[in-house]
Amino acid sequence: MTNRLFTPAASPESVGIPSEAIAAFLQRIKRLGVNLHGFLIVRDGQIASEGYWAPYTADSTHRMYSVSKSFVSLSVGLLIDAGKLKLNDKVAAFFPDKLPPAPHRYLLDTTVRDLLMMATPHDRTSYSFKDKDWAATFFQHQPCHPPGTVFAYDTAATVILNTIVERITGVPFLTFMRERLLDPIGASKDIWCVQTPEGTSWGGSGVICTLRDMAKVAYVCMNGGRWGEQQLISEQYVREATSKQIDNSLGERSGYGYQIWVEPDGGFAFRGMGSQFAFCFPKQRFLFACIADTQGSANGGLYLEQAYREEILARLSHDPLPEKESAQTELQQSINGLHILPQPGELTSPQAGAISNQWFRMEPNPMGITRMRFRFNGDEGVWEYTNAAGEHQLAFGIGQQVAGQFPQPGYSGARIGTVGDKYRCLASAAWVDPQTLNMLVYVTDHYLGTLKASFNFKGDQIGVLMTKVAEWFLNEYNGFAGGCLDSAAVSE
């Protein structure tokens, strides 16, 4: 069985999934405009269907955000299996260098299990982007209730957990997992993790891997810690990790295990910001995993969950179904044509010729943009502007995506607070009415985010609105601005 795991099934029907159901899911995603990057459906250990929205592919590594927490949980389980850690160990014992002079008793009482089930003594995550030592903030933040009593989602809990693993093993937690879990399941060699400012792994949010990597790790959990006949992590730990350990029904959830969410209908899930998901249903022998960036859509994640549940999960058959070659062909054609959709609207406007190459002088504004102009050339364009960081250019497609780099410098690289390269992005624009050009920019790097901008041209004046959804970047692109044609500027 091990050799057959994660190999393509003969067809979706061969594992009890109608091809029409998967096609209906894809059509619904497109109709709702959900920014999905990839999906993977596994039944009975075989890949029933898989697809990627260009430019993403099966080999693309992707930020998993809080799915990272589930990876950390398994590293803790492996350490427990090795006899080097216990669930009831007090976490303060691992951090004598970070404790305040007189630690609160709630901090001293906090155990590894408390952190695993998000039952810290805190009411929120203790660190911020500006903090230089995220693990230390956990012990500096004033606690407000006994640990182990109530659920409060706290990413600092995961930072503490993966730091414990790294202090005990002397290596990054993913390196510790490599021989014991990642290599046996055939995970890619490119898995890595963004670092905290102090240089440990950011296990709460920073794992970067392929969709298949995430799905394989989830599949191990769905099978009680086994990969085929290999017991990679103890069944007892996995059963506890994937079952309800604490109530979180006030947040309208079904429970929480050890850094893993409990789902209705006997399932569990890895969940990450922006709709990085692995939904597992052991009784149905079914796994649905996806990568996406729905941060810029208020209901994108909800739409995605409803779509897979109603179109696919609800239509599973316990047994193989009759083959439907025409439906299978149509499904594959749909998958082959998947691509990230551009900004919707008209491809041109009479206004385009009037403003092309014309500089606008901007009034003081929250973005600090002092001037801007647009240059149009067929189905592409360039937005030029000047802000506090200098002069910038962003190429965009009209009715299509154009890949490039977002021009703003200074954003974090492989380590939070340490500047990296400019982020990769996809940019598009379209005319939503004769006077209004809307722009849509997806940042598609190790950090994911969305920038939406609207430029309205009224005579010699311009009105601008920019909104961004991105964690700790694109802050320079949020707010309103106005300006007018600069008759003194020279057009090139």
Automatic annotation (TrEMBL):
SUPFAM superfamilies: beta-lactamase/transpeptidase-like. This is Class C beta-lactamase-related serine hydrolase. It comes from the Bacteria. Residues 22-299 form the Beta-lactamase-related domain. It comes from Paenibacillus ginsengarvi. The keyword Hydrolase applies. InterPro entries: Beta-lactam-related, Beta-lactam/transpept-like, Diverse_Enzym_Activities. It holds the Pfam family Beta-lactamase. Keywords: Hydrolase. The keyword Cell wall biogenesis/degradation does not apply. Coiled coil: none annotated. GO terms for molecular function: hydrolase activity. The lineage of its organism: Bacteria, Bacillati, Bacillota, Bacilli, Bacillales.
